[in-house]
Amino acid sequence: MNLSTSNQVPIKIKSRKNPMGEYSHLNTEELFRAVKESAHSKYRADFDMLLGLFLERYDAREKELDELNKVLERRMQEEVNLSKANHKRFEQQAKMAAMGEMMDAVAHQWKQPLNALSMMSDMLVEDFSNSLVDQEYIDSLSCDTQVQIEHMITTLQEFRDFFRPKETKESFGLKRCVQSVMLLVNDEFMKNYITIDINCEKEILIHGIENEFKHLVLNIINNAKDAFNEKSIQKRTITINIYKNDIYNCVDFEDSAGGIPLNVINHVFKPEVTTKVDGKGTGIGLYMSTQIAEKLGGKLSVKNVNNGACFLLQIPL
Is the pTM of this model over 0.85? Predict the structure, then answer.
């Protein structure tokens, strides 16, 4: 019996022999044709054996595919685990960089009250020697001393809270949170001749992890500070606008630091991308800021405006 279709080479089916040996040379397509055509053969054994061979190949192929899927699943899981590990590494790097910045800021914040306390101590000794110390003097000195100490305690508490891990989401005010960051960095930015203006007509509450939002604010204003210093810009202003529209709660950070180079601006939120000179930046801060924005359910974008850059955080109402 000859098996053939139009424009195809006939496949000779040899009945009453061993099809496993006789037909094993056929490729899958030829074997499938042989199975179909032998179904009409008077030699039923041909059909059964050809079908058995076909099913055997099918099962082998299914096993190969199963093994391949298992390999792909393992590789995908490895990639997911690697991605998580990289994210944790980036997060830790960003936290350590922020901690270094904040420790420097706290040192500057404490410098002024410590100098004031030292001066008051010297004044007390001198005034005592001149018999100028009375109860009113002591009360006034005690009050002034307490003001300076309270300032230092508040700064230290803010610093501790800033790096205290929190996983519980809660409602917090955007304006109050930004002002809390300013309390820690105010002296540092004054030292760099940078003026920060906060515009907010009415407090806006959002739901999330407050410390993470503080990190976002710190990352963005520190990037502006570095840009001012690298470019030696004289007029140094950062304007933070907090407002809402029909769709979003918004916070935009606009600086006068000259803007972001066009060849970089579309990549600044990628990990390890930085515009700073070698050794001056990790490229992690803005990447982590986008992650924080996403955890808040929002998005962070940037564009060049006027003579600087504007970062816009949008969080759905």
Answer: no
